[in-house]
Amino acid sequence: MKETSKKGEQFYRQWEKQREKKWYYVFIHVSIYWGLSVAIFTYLWSAHFEIENRSILKLLSSLAVFMIAGLWVGLSQFKRIDSIYLGLNDEAEIRKGIQTIESGENWNYENLIISKTTYKTLNIQNQLIWFEDKDLTSEKIGECFNLILVDYQRLKKNIDFECFVTDRKVRVQIMDNSEKEILLMEKLI
After folding, report:
1. How far apart are CA 178 and CA 154, in angstroms?
2. For 125-149, what is each residue's pLDDT tens digit?
3. Rounded alpha-carbon distances, angstroms, from residue 111 to 20, 57, 65, 130, 145
4. Distance CA 131, CA 176 (A)
5. DSSP states of 105-143 as a string?
6. Tens digit of pLDDT for each residue in 40-97?
């Protein structure tokens, strides 16, 4: 899951609920709100805002045209917003990653390397460490651990991954950048 701001998080949570009601969104938010308001304005504009130029037939035809056009606009708007949501979500990539882990292979996701050590235990390692070897202190290693936890928590926002890790223990390991892959820290969460 991509990292987002607070506004992005709010969008993600709201759209997660709204996308389940696709036709409700298309009809209410666009066909009614947009189509109805544009139809009434167009009707009044074509009647030059005068009472004697108004007719119920013109109003109904204006409403029909703009509300039907609103359905098309709403559907295209829904698809556009949903593609942004799916881009944040990485659903397909995460499902594929879960299958990779289940098959016993390592899955690289952003800065994480996730593998299954036993049936009930997942191993999460850092792919990179952000400090030079000479700068490694327990404080820097703790900072690296916290960054990995943030990445892991973002990944857990995905429903499939949340279900996958629900009954598993998770072991976080901080490895150095060298070819030796020295274990610097290990913690069970």
Report:
1. 27
2. 887 766 666 667 788 888 888 888 8
3. 31, 63, 51, 11, 12
4. 9
5. --EEETTEEEEEEETTEEEEEES--SS-GGG--HHHHHH
6. 888 888 877 666 666 788 888 888 888 888 888 888 888 888 888 777 667 778 889 9
